Structure formats: C-alpha cells, structure tokens
Amino acid sequence: MKTRMKLRLAAVVSAACLAVAGLAIAHAADTGWNGKVEAPKYKGDMFPPWQGGANNDTVNKGFLFTVPEVDDMADFHGDIDHPKLILYIGGNYYFAVAPLVKTFEAEHPQYKGGVFVVTIPPGLEIKAMKAGGIFTVGNMSFTAKPDAFLAGLKKVKSLISDGMLVGPPVAYATNNLTIMIPKGNPGHITGLKDFGKPGVKLVMPNPAFEGIARQIEASLVKAGGKALEQKVYETGVKDGSTILTHIHHRQTPLFLMQGLADAGVTWKSEAIFQEQIGHPISNIDLPAKYNTTAIYGGAMVKDAAHPAAAKAWLSFVQTPAALKIFEHYGFKPYKK
Fold this sequence. Notes:
alpha+beta, nine-stranded mixed β-sheet, Substrate-binding domain-containing protein, ModA/WtpA
C-alpha cells in the first residue's frame, strides 16, 4: 500500500513539475526570452558610446557617469538645458558628429557648447517630432524639439511636402551599401547570394523605421530575385535566422562581435568607422550592379526655435570643411 501511495505521489509531483515547466516554456515563448542571465564576458569598451564623450560639446561636463550597456545614452549628444541649436540627424553618421560640431563651432563660435544632436533612425525621429520632441529613455524624460532635420533626401522632400519641414532641401553627401562581417569572416560570406544559404545568421535593419531597409531589399532582389529578399526579410525573420534591429547603426556590429550573426548590410561608412576604432569588424563591397547610392539632405523644421542656427548648419554641411570630414568615413560629396 505504501509503495502504491509513493508511486502515485511521485506521479502527481512529476505531473506538476511538467506543468510548471510547460508554463515556463510557454512564458518564454510569449516573451521571446530563451536565454539565461550570466556575467558579461566582454570588454566594456566594446559597447557604446565608442568615442569617449567626444560627441558631447558641453563645456562643463560635471560628474561623468557612463556604464556601458547599463547607463548609456549614446544617441543623444550635448547639453539639453540651454541649447542654441538642436539637430535630428540620421543615425548612420553618429560617428561624424564630433568632428562636424567641432568644425562648425570653430566657424560659428557663438554656438560653442550649445549644439544638441539626436542620432536615432530617421523614422523614430519623425515619431519624436510628432510627439512634440519629448523623449523618454529609461526613467528620464526630456524635451528636444529640432531646428533642423537631416536624413535621406527623398524623406526630407516628403516632410517638406507634409509641412513638417521648410524648403528648399539641402543635399550634401552620398553613401553606398556594404556587407558588414566579423573580422575573419567565420560565416564565409562572399556576397548577397550567400544570404540564402542554410545556416547563415543575419542581422538586418528593420523596415518599420529604417529607410536603408528598403534599399537593401532592392539590392537583394537585384542579386537573387524576389526569393532572396523573401528569404531574408520574411522567412528568415519568422524562423529566427534574421535578427531585425532597432538602432542598426550600433546593433549590427555589436551582434556580429558577440557571435550572434554572420553578416549584415549597412552603409559603407559604418563599417569604415568600426575598422578605424579597432573593432574586429570588416566588410565586403557590393558590386555596383547590386548596390544603392543614398543621397543625404536636410531642411529647417517648421517653427524652429533657432532658425538662424539651423540655416547656418545647413549651409555648413555643404562646405569643403564638412565634406572633408564626411569623406574620412567613406562618404562622397553630392553632385547634381
């Protein structure tokens, strides 16, 4: 009798454990979390911000408090208390902010220490503009209404048509796509066609708010037809072989360096910057027939609080001094 009771009790306990495990698995599936917490094994300097605070032109920085991956606002640059110019710049050249602002302030000393720059993807910046320039990051909320908006020229023109920006638009630089890979190319990627091979893990810009994704989709179609584009952006997203980013300009190299992906498409300038700062990142050029050229433009925001400063910046980005900075990262001057 005791033996039967023990067996029944064991069966009940076992069933309960399986039920709990099932709930845990279901919860993991619901939340998307299937990992485990463990101490980080990376060097702190592998995480943003990567430029040692150089993008912040604040004169008095006070108490320095940055903890990589924990307390880190890498895409907001400058002093928000008394800005003299607020810029929303497409995140694909956050790394050029420091030298650009430094050169601009040397030519326009009245703005020294007062340039505040936001470098998240343009699609998200537009959402912020529609929200009155109010941001909430973690436990902090602040307001930064832009004076000028700089992104892809096509998007700038559409925002002028919508009445959010004031024309005429200013075009100043161009950029091309590349395949970003970890140094050593462990995935043995040779070109876009390899994105269709079984087992290849990709990290790709999110079409929901990153304009580059539309141009990447066009390049995938050129290289391997609609089937390749669907393999990357539909099938791959569903089966987990394609990771979609939220701030791809920083997440792509991070995911590659952490071994989470074999490759990802970015702008050429981003790969050049990663190599310049010594990260284990490389890139594979795309043939011209598969590539896409982006044209960068900007315009003043309607009802800008600092219109003179906005106009000064829009004139500045077309100057030889600014274009020389862009060329350092692989951009080319825009030519009509």
